[in-house]
């Protein structure tokens, strides 16, 4: 989801509940195929998405669709008013699908009543808890920017 996320072998093994050997094998396969970039960080090897890979954008789009983010963004922008920025924050922005999606919406004269309806409707559509936070100013260093004017 977020190209800036990095992880290492043990962290991924813990997160997925798999052995380090099986995770190592898959990381090597993904690195060999060019989907991941391998970096030495002191005594740890970290892995990160290769944003230069020709299929990076396609894979990111597939993940967004799987998570329902394409529907989420479409709904927000069509009826929310004067939206300046939409930022995905929380666990999902860090690549962890915990079942909760947190979104910051920046803009003026946003439709508060519609957001309550939208929250319930999206939770039904994508089967995840959706939390919107309305803010007045754009964020710079927080989360994954999905839309910006």
Concise structural overview:
Helices cover 40% and strands 30% of the residues. The chain is of the alpha+beta class and 149 residues long.
Task: Give descriptors for this structure.
149 residues, alpha+beta, Beta Polymerase, domain 2, 2 domains, four-stranded mixed sheet, 7 strands, elongated
Provide a descriptive summary of the structure in words:
By secondary structure, the chain is α+β, with helices and mostly antiparallel strands. The protein has 2 domains: 6-49; 57-148, Beta Polymerase, domain 2, CATH 3.30.460. The protein has helices at 9-16, 20-32, 56-67, 69-79, 112-126, and strands spanning 6-8, 36-41, 44-49, 82-89, 100-108, 129-135, 144-148. The strands form 2 sheets. A 4-stranded mixed sheet has the order 6-5-4-7, with helices on one face. α4 (69-79) packs antiparallel against α5. The longest helix has 15 residues, at 112-126. The chain is elongated and about 50 Å long. It starts with 5 loop residues before the first strand and ends with a strand. The model has no long low-confidence stretch (mean pLDDT 83). This is ArsR family transcriptional regulator.
User: Which assembly state applies to the chains in this document?
Assistant: single chain
User: What is the CATH C level class of the largest domain, in words?
Assistant: Alpha Beta
Alpha plus pi helix count = 5
Mind describing the biggest β-sheet?
A: 4 strands, mixed
Structural class: alpha+beta
Q: What is the fold named in CATH at topology level of the largest domain?
A: Beta Polymerase, domain 2
Weakly predicted, low-confidence segments:
none
Please estimate the helix content. Answer: 25-40%
Reported CATH architecture of the largest domain: 2-Layer Sandwich
Strand content: 25-35%
The succession of helices and strands, N to C, reads EHHEEHHEEHEE
Tell me the number of strands.
7
Radius of gyration: 17 Å
User: What is the residue-averaged pLDDT?
Assistant: 83
Strand order, sheet with most strands: 6-5-4-7
Structural domain count: 2
- Shape annotation: elongated
Report the end-to-end length measured between terminal Cα atoms.
Answer: 21 Å
């Amino acid at each position: 989801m977020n190209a800036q996320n990095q992880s290492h072998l043990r962290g991924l093994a813990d997160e997925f509940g798999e052995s380090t050997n099986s995770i190592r094998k898959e990381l090597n396969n993904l690195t060999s195929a060019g989907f991941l970039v391998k970096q030495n960080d002191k005594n740890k090897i970290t892995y990160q998405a290769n944003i230069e890979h020709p299929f990076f954008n396609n894979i990111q789009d597939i993940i967004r669709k799987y998570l329902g983010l394409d529907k989420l963004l479409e709904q927000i922008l069509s009826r929310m008013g004067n939206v300046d920025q939409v930022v995905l924050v929380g666990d999902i922005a860090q690549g962890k699908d915990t079942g909760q999606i947190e979104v910051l919406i920046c803009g003026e004269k946003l439709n508060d009543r519609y957001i309550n309806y939208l929250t319930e409707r999206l939770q039904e559509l994508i089967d995840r808890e959706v939390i919107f936070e309305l803010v007045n100013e754009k964020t710079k260093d927080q989360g994954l920017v999905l839309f910006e004017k």
